[in-house]
Design brief:
By secondary structure, the chain is an alpha/beta fold. The protein is 44% helix and 11% strand. It contains 25 helices and 21 strands. The strands form 6 sheets. It has a 6-stranded mixed β-sheet with strand order 1-5-6-10-12-11. Helix 6 links the parallel strand 2 and strand 3. The longest helix has 47 residues. It is globular, with a radius of gyration of 28 Å.
Length: 670
């Protein structure tokens, strides 16, 4: 009975009691609110990352086509001595291409002049820190570096890199500290923020840049040139590691080659610039060890990693990690595993492509399609074997710019902020002192930073902050748009799969069936059940979904609305959109001189590769007829729009390539 009288109404509470209860309610509400935001953020992150890694898987699937093309394409034209199609000469001691550009500096640069109308930064040799500062200021002003200076910096940098071992040895003895930066991916504003906050590289301020300087962003060329220039000026205190994107096959798809073509495509030296970048990338060291205690490598390790072997392999032969060099006695009749040194190849592949995971053990990295997943036990084993305490790696975007895993034995650092979308993530860099304890510094870049000069005070990294909910909403909206694009580009396949469950054509299937179908068709392992209310209409209890509602919307590609009726197979625009990345990559591969157009000779070479793959012969006359038909404006060249227009004639989902070849040879397609 006493208990019944203990209840107290709100009106009977004292002022302090009311305040305390209100505070508890607000705290409970805020925790739930934060939990909901975190759930949305994690779902958003899962979408971005899954789509990104699916793209890398697609790139690796194109490997065989690229491999044959680069090995088979003829070299009859003079410009091919600068092309990726020329195989690396593995029989000499330098690993150089048949044309040694470094040895011919005077011949290449001596006749080159800088036009009077050029307004960009000027470069003189030997390079000084003032010259590099002038380059930075010129890039901030939006100027391009003259092609002569680009080639000179690449040439001088390659000379320096050739003297360096595969694994660089850095020290904190003199400067008492060192800074490690992760992926930049062409985001020059992030590099400027790092230099503002942490200072320019110098003997008193050494740096390790851990790969992936290029691709995706718009200023990969400028970032690479700045870093290469610092290596030339301070080779003893600026360390560059190679990332998986310092690779010409990756550059074909992810934008660096396109950027070089846009910025220097009007010059007849553009093919040489491309070649020189490839050479420098191949000579980049693979890892850096700090004071014998911390190893810095782009991707990670595996249970087969041996730093001694990694330090002794011929890194310059791996112009592309996806196309390992063949053994001297390799023969086409051999299995692929017998044509290459697989053990050696795996050392460099794991170093540049691997990711840590929470479970013990080591297994192939199926998510990316290359490298390994390594667990805490693998980390402990490899570190102990080499007397190391910490592994610093990059390769993965993290919401806060960094992340500790494996009992703080692995530190991931990523230096490109706003990587997926404005507000999606912070960037970070790591400062390490003589005590070898990492101190992570976060930042967020904006257009405001590009206008700041190094050393300028008063910077406010979040001058116009976004409220947490608004920021999450913006990033979430961008992720859902990307996901919706992927859904629409596969809507025919999805509808067919949905109908396998909906035999009565009611328009409804269970939520479990919907989620499993989405994951299977799109190949994305994301929280479909959590995302379901945002993507598809459900009944009241959420057990059934109206699957057609997730397939609504039209794609716009090249200014044309796509989509034939569902019963007529995939629409033309749907097919184009789904294959657009592969098509652009193949186009750039065919375009050997990087002119932006495919010549008749280039088209014939590519058709020879295609003929080999499909096991059918295409006559030269047929190839010429095809090229003439594709050349809509009859200028003797096939540009990318004409290439896409020709692709519209073929539906790879409903017509086998061999059938297409037979039809063409019969003369029924003109």
């Amino acid at each position: 009975m006493g208990c019944a009288g203990s209840a107290q109404t709100y009106s009977e509470m004292g002022k302090s009691e009311k305040s305390l209860k209100a505070a508890l309610l607000i705290q409970r509400w805020y925790r739930r609110y934060q939990a909901r935001l975190e759930t949305r953020r994690r779902c958003t992150w899962s979408i971005f990352q899954s789509i990104e890694y699916a793209g890398e898987q697609d790139q690796l699937k194109l490997y065989n086509f690229f491999n044959d093309m680069m090995s088979t394409v003829g070299n009859s034209n003079d410009y091919t001595k600068y092309m990726v199609s020329e195989p690396v000469n593995t029989n000499d001691g330098t690993g150089s291409q048949p044309v040694d550009c470094v040895a011919q500096d005077n011949q290449i640069f001596g006749h080159m002049s800088v036009e009077e109308e050029y307004r960009g930064p000027h470069v003189t040799f030997p390079l000084t820190i003032d010259t590099v500062q002038g380059m930075i200021n010129g890039f901030k002003a939006g100027h391009l570096l003259h092609r002569k200076y680009v080639l000179q910096i690449l040439s001088e940098c390659m000379k320096v890199l050739k003297t360096m071992p595969n694994i660089s040895q850095a020290s904190t003895t003199f400067a008492k500290q060192i800074t490690v930066c992760g992926d930049l991916h062409g985001s020059i504003d992030d590099l400027f923020v790092i230099f503002y906050k942490n200072g320019l590289p110098s003997p008193e301020n050494p740096y390790v840049f851990n790969g992936d300087y290029v691709d995706r962003g718009q200023h990969s060329v400028e970032i690479a040139l700045i870093l290469f220039a610092f290596v030339i000026v301070y080779p003893e205190v600026v360390y560059l590691n190679r990332g998986n994107h310092e690779d010409y096959i990756m550059n074909l798809r992810y934008g660096f080659l396109k950027e070089v073509q846009m910025k220097y495509g009007m010059s007849d030296l553009m093919p040489l610039i491309v070649h020189m970048f490839q050479e420098v990338f191949a000579w980049l060291p693979l890892a850096t060890v700090i004071d014998g205690k911390i190893v810095v490598v782009h991707g990670g390790i595996s249970d087969q990693t041996d730093l001694t072997r990694l330090n002794n392999l011929p890194r310059h032969k791996y112009t592309s990690i996806l196309k390992p060099p063949l053994k001297e006695d390799a023969d086409e009749s051999m299995d692929v595993s017998d044509q290459v040194d697989v053990v050696e190849w795996r050392q460099i592949l794991d170093a540049l492509w691997s990711d840590p995971r929470t479970q013990d053990g080591c297994q192939p990295n199926a998510f990316r399609g290359g490298g390994s997943y390594f667990g805490p036990d693998v980390t402990r084993k490899v570190l102990a074997k080499h007397g190391l305490d910490l592994l610093i790696r990059s390769h993965e975007c993290k919401p806060n710019g960094f992340e500790f895993t494996h009992d703080d034995k692995v530190l991931t650092v990523f230096s490109a902020s706003n990587y997926y979308e404005v507000g999606s993530n912070r960037g970070a860099y790591v400062r390490i002192g003589v005590d070898h304890k990492p101190h992570c510094v976060q930042f967020v870049s904006s257009e405001h930073h590009q206008k700041l000069s190094i050393g300028q005070s008063g910077i406010n990294l979040e001058k116009e902050p976004l409220w947490a909910k608004h920021r999450v909403s913006l990033v979430e909206g961008s992720a859902l748009r990307d996901l919706k694009d992927k859904v629409i580009s596969h809507k025919t396949q999805l509808r067919e799969s949905f109908l396998e469950y909906d035999t009565e054509k009611s328009g409804h299937i269970t939520a479990v069936q919907w989620a499993s179908t989405m994951e299977k068709v799109l190949g994305l392992a994301i929280p479909w059940h959590t995302l379901r209310p945002r993507l598809v209409r459900c009944n009241e209890d959420g057990s059934l979904v109206e699957y057609d509602t997730c397939l609504t919307g039209d794609l716009v590609y090249g200014g044309e609305e796509g989509g034939r009726p569902a019963n007529d197979g995939p629409g033309i625009t749907e097919t184009l959109y789904r294959n657009r990345n592969a098509l652009e990559t193949i186009f750039r591969m065919m375009d050997k001189d990087h002119s932006g157009s495919i010549s008749l000779d280039e088209f014939e070479d590519a058709c020879g590769i295609l003929s080999k793959h499909i096991g059918s012969t295409i006559s030269k006359q047929t190839v010429r007829d095809m090229a003439t038909s594709m050349d809509i404006n009859k200028d003797g060249q096939i540009d990318f729009n004409e290439f896409l227009e020709a692709f519209r004639l073929v539906d790879p989902q409903s017509q086998a390539m061999t059938d297409m070849t037979t039809t063409v040879d019969n003369g029924s397609v003109t």
